[in-house]
C-alpha cells in the first residue's frame, strides 16, 4: 500500500485548499488495515525541519492539531475510500511547505513526532502567496 497525497497548489493568502491522502489499498504491508491506522499530516518548509500539523485516530474523532493551526485546519477521514483529508482555510504564506501524510498503528501519545509513523506519502506542495 502506498499513500498518495494530492490537492496541493498555489493559493492566495486567505484562501483554502483541501488536501487528500489516498491509500492505494486497504491494508499496509505489515497487515495493518488502513481503517485501523492513525493518520497524520506533517509539513516541511524550505530550510526547516518537518513539523507536525495534525493527526486523527482510526475512528475519525478526537483530532490533535499543532498550535499554529489555530482552528484553521481540519482533518477528516473516509475509511471506506481509505482516504484522509486536510481542509486548510485562512492560509498564510507561512503555511507554504510540502505537506505529507503518514500512518501509524498507534494514535497516542506520540502523535507529534515523525518517528511515530511507519508509512509516508511522497508529499504535495502548497504555496501561499500574498
SSE diagram, text form:
Layout: E1 3-6, E2 9-12, E3 17-23, E4 38-44, E5 51-56, E6 64-65, E7 73-78, E8 83-88, E9 97-104, E10 119-120, E11 124-129
Parallel strand pairs: 2-11
Antiparallel strand pairs: 1-3, 3-8, 4-5, 4-9, 5-6, 7-8, 9-10, 9-11
Structure in words:
The chain has 130 residues and is mostly beta strands. It contains no helices and eleven strands. Strands 2, 4, 5, 6, 9, 10 and 11 form a seven-stranded mixed β-sheet that branches. The chain has a four-stranded antiparallel β-sheet with strand order 1-3-8-7, with no helix packed on it. The protein is globular. The termini are far apart. The mean pLDDT is 95.
Keywords for this structure?
130 residues; mainly beta; seven-stranded mixed β-sheet; four-stranded antiparallel β-sheet
Concise account of the structure shown:
By secondary structure, the chain is mainly beta. The protein is 0% helix and 45% strand.
The N- and C-terminal alpha carbons lie at a distance of 37 Å
Number of helices: 0
The whole-angstrom Rg is 14 Å
Could you state the order of secondary-structure elements as H and E?
A: EEEEEEEEEEE
Main beta sheet, described?
A: 7 strands, mixed
Shape: globular
Instruction: Tell me how many strands there are.
Output: 11
Structural class: mainly beta
Proportion of residues in β-strands: 35-45%
Helix content: under 10%
Low-confidence segments, given as residue ranges, are none
Mean pLDDT: 95
